[in-house]
């Protein structure tokens, strides 16, 4: 545990952002076009449950989604022989790395429509990830320390932020008139883990008088979770220990936040429906078991190594070298507990949608999904064609335009039987079958159980 926080700061930046995680946001996902699926209301709380049954989502499955956007894919890190290579990553990337992801794991989902009203309840785990890094740092890891002796270099900035929290939400949709429906989804958020390192720089310089190579991290980071962080000024070391309680797993009331989704649908005529929604207007809080850590001093190396040539002298495997570096960092930090509560905004999403029914079986869908988070804006434009095949199978296919620069073909489908419903949706079908090459991917899937509430 001694190097937990610093490994998050370095290793996760380079590796965890590459790993696919189940995610929550509906941005650009064609699930919103599957009107027969109750979870389409995640895009707009004014959407009604059209099954006319009680919908119970299977825990951990129904509503799991994955959203990933980056300027690199996981195959950048591996060669054709499936061996990891920081040099291959560095060469393939060729520019600063950037990645965004968000994640949800559903625990409970219930939805039921009664006449002109739909009530829904959900409990889920959510993860938000955002990061960028100087790709020259990859070269530093690949080369090792030896080539930098006698030089002064600086790598950075490196930034990474993650939020992990539990979301408890209640949704209410009402058909106000024949043409207008409104919806609201208030949320209570319970913070589980938070990590934020912003603009970290790593300086590598040579002390000729002492004949040592110094690695100097500059910056600080915030962390909150089931841990206890203490700084001992006598030995100059920050210790990190687990401090896990039952409240850390269930509902973390000391790190509570709140949010709300709002939406409406309007039918100007029988064929056309317009929908507008704004989601995740809210915040999480950081208060309990929260610490600010500042890097101080330098890590001095007298025994240098190289990591690029396995056959040459002084070779040290890059992954082991990186781990040794992160193990040294706790000795170079000073930790202080938070003195007051801090607030973190959620990624706000605006969803604009238009649907035009060609007939009883076919319709056209158009949407624009904008997301604002951490000072950055991303946008998905989508056009999809839906068709009902029989009475149970719905298929949607179309194109997505990400940030006006990348076109991706997507599809969604659902099968509704008497007592069960299956669905799958992705905005990038090509990368669904080749996930190692995915730079942009949004995946949703689920299994719903359907129960009739009408008397026999």
Automatic annotation (TrEMBL):
Q: Which UniProt keywords apply?
A: Signal
InterPro entries, per the entry:
DUF5723 (IPR043781)
In which domain of life is the source organism classified? Bacteria
Q: Where is the DUF5723 domain?
A: 45-427
Q: Where is the signal peptide?
A: 1-25
* Iron-sulfur as UniProt keyword: no
| Descriptive protein name | DUF5723 domain-containing protein
């Amino acid at each position: 545990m001694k190097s937990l926080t610093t490994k998050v700061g370095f290793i996760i930046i380079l590796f965890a952002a590459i790993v696919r995680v189940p995610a929550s946001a509906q941005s650009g996902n064609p699930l919103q076009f599957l009107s027969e699926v109750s979870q389409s209301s995640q895009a707009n709380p004014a959407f009604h449950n059209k099954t006319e049954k009680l919908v119970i989502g299977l825990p951990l499955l129904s509503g799991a989604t994955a959203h990933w956007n980056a300027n690199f894919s996981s195959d950048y890190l591996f060669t054709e022989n499936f061996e990891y290579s920081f040099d291959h990553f560095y060469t393939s990337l060729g520019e600063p790395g950037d990645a965004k992801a968000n994640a949800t794991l559903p625990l409970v989902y219930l939805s039921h429509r009664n006449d002109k009203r739909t009530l829904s309840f959900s409990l889920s785990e959510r993860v938000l990830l955002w990061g960028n890094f100087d790709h020259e740092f990859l070269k530093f890891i690949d080369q090792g320390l030896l080539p930098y002796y006698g030089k002064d270099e600086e790598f950075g900035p490196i930034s990474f932020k993650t939020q992990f929290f539990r979301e408890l939400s209640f949704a209410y949709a009402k058909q106000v008139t024949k043409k207008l429906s409104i919806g609201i989804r208030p949320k209570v958020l319970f913070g589980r883990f938070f990590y934020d390192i912003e603009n970290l720089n790593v300086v590598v310089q040579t002390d000729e008088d002492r004949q040592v190579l110094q690695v100097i991290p500059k910056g600080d980071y915030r962390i909150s979770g089931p841990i206890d962080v203490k700084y001992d000024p006598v030995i100059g070391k920050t210790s990190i220990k687990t401090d896990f309680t039952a409240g850390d797993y269930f509902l973390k009331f000391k790190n509570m936040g709140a949010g709300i989704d709002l939406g409406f649908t309007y039918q100007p005529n029988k064929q056309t429906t317009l929908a507008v929604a704004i989601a995740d207007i809210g915040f999480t809080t950081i208060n309990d078991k929260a610490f600010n850590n500042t890097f101080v001093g330098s890590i001095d190396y007298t025994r240098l190594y190289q990591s690029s040539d396995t056959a040459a002298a002084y070779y040290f495997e890059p992954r082991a070298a990186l781990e040794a570096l992160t193990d040294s960092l706790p000795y170079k930090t000073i930790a202080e507990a938070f003195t007051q509560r801090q607030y973190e905004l959620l990624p706000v999403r605006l969803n604009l949608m238009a649907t035009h029914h060609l007939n009883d079986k076919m319709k056209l869908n158009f949407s624009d999904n904008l997301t604002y988070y951490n000072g950055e804006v991303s946008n998905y434009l989508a056009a999809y064609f839906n068709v009902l095949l029989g009475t149970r199978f719905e298929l949607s296919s179309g194109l997505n335009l990400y940030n006006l620069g990348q076109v991706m073909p997507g599809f969604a489908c659902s099968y509704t039987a008497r007592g069960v419903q299956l669905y799958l949706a992705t905005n990038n079908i090509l990368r669904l079958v080749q996930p190692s090459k995915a730079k942009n991917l949004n995946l949703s899937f689920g299994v719903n159980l359907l129960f009739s509430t009408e008397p026999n």
